[in-house]
Amino acid sequence: MSNAALKSRTRADYAFFQTYRTRWTDNDQYAHINNAIYYHFFDSITNAYLIAHCALSPTSSSLIGLVVSSHCAYFRPLAYPAVLELGLRVNKLGRSSVEYEVGVFEEGEEALAAVGGYTHVFVDSASRKTAALHEETRNGLRRLLFPPPSSSPASSKL
Coiled coil located at which positions (predicted)? Predict the structure, then answer.
């Protein structure tokens, strides 16, 4: 997808939100949030959602998600002490994989500051072999799927 298409995303394009209060240590020597920190944002909101809505526990579930690809497009710099609103959606839901997208908004701003995400492939936590998503996990992720399924009650906003 082109950066122009990603930049046109709005808050309505995301189904789950989490607030993040930036820290002084998030800034780099150029006085803006370091690019690597954005990947912490992506990981934090995704795992918070998986734990709260998909019955997954990183330390005890039989399935775990391994990142196989990631990306981020930056549209404007952010810096401490900004408060951010992270929006999460699922762009693709496969048998054992999920493609997430995270929109990074500064609190009170409508324009995206950055958009990125990654793909998880779910594997058995012991053998590390690819495994199908459990139904409870699939149902939780389906609620974030964009575009939402047209006739599914699970497509409502969280």
Answer: none
